[in-house]
Amino acid sequence: MTPRVAAAYIIQCLVWGTTWAAIKIGVTDVAPWTFALARSILVAAFLGAVALALHLPFPRGRKTLVAAALTGGFNAGASWAIIFWAEQFVPSGLVAVFGATSPIWTALLAHFLVEHDRLSVLKILALVLGFGGIVVLVGASGEISAGPALLAAVLLALMTLGWAIAAVAMSRTLTTVHPIPAIALGTATGAVVLVPLVIIEAATGRPVTWTPHAIAAVVYLALIGSGVGLVLNLWLYRRLRPTTIALAQLLITVEAVLVGALALGEQVTLGMAAGAVLVLSAIALNARAGRPRPPGGPLPGQAAASPAE
């Protein structure tokens, strides 16, 4: 891993470790799907404007367009809907721990779909530990509250499988596109996915109060969480294997739990801690077993790529 790639990797981790708490702040005042839609619209508009201003090429070709739209529709649509809704009932740190299970699914799928990214004994052991952690975490949701929290835990556990599918798809089809217009297209698709949910949400009559805290949270999530985090994430897919990128969840999760506990006063129960230990142990084994892919070539018309993109 070159210093430039390592810097991008660390910046992505630091940024995404704070987004879970920002979501929690936002959904306290604004209905979750409305808040998610606002984020996706802001991201699409901001990155789209940047792409047009810098004359960056948007994805072309049916296969690339479909991949960008589908991965964006899930990552910025369906998964944001689940996360934002779940954070009404589940501490942001625990939501982040569920997100950390994505490398487990990614390692399994990459074995069959990504060249030179095969399962090993260590990765298989990591899968066992990781799935054990998922079971413990779902059970730990009962320590918070019944009903919605348990449903949220199940949805979060399933959501990371979708992240893994999207990660493999991005690695196979989006490694040659410029990340800024690709993310703009993907988040626009995510907004389309969220619109029906917002209509349903509005029908329930829940008031939407855009407090200064909620506005600051959505702007931070859009410009920093997505404008920086998502762009760097796709940029890294040109240089690292899907499993290596997914391992960023190790650092992200630790930071998210600390931010939730220190800034929001969230409780960390014994069951949550036990599940987190299993999941983080699985990620550490994956890290030991994984190797980065060789750096990719520059984008068309560029001498080299940089984290500033």
Fraction in beta strands: under 5%
Overall SS class: mainly alpha
Categorize the overall geometry.
Answer: globular
Flag low-confidence runs: 292-309
H and E order? HHHHHHHHHHHHH
Total domain count: 1
Radius of gyration in whole Å, from Cα? 18 Å
Mean pLDDT: 81
Structure summary, number of beta strands? 0
Number of H/I helices: 13
Give the N-to-C terminal Cα separation.
Answer: 18 Å
Helix content: over 70%
Note the main sheet.
Answer: none
Commentary on this structure:
The chain is mainly alpha-helical and 309 residues long. The protein has one domain. The longest helix has 27 residues. The chain contains 13 helices and no strands.
Secondary-structure map with pairings?
Layout: H1 3-29, H2 32-53, H3 62-86, H4 92-99, H5 102-113, H6 121-140, H7 148-173, H8 179-203, H9 212-226, H10 229-236, H11 242-246, H12 249-264, H13 270-289
Provide key terms for this protein.
309 residues; mainly alpha; 74% helix; 0% strand; globular
Q: What's the short version?
A:
The protein has one domain. It has 13 helices and no strands. It has helices at about 5-30, 30-55, 60-85, 90-100, 100-115, 120-140, 150-175, 180-205, 210-225, 230-235, 240-245, 250-265, 270-290.
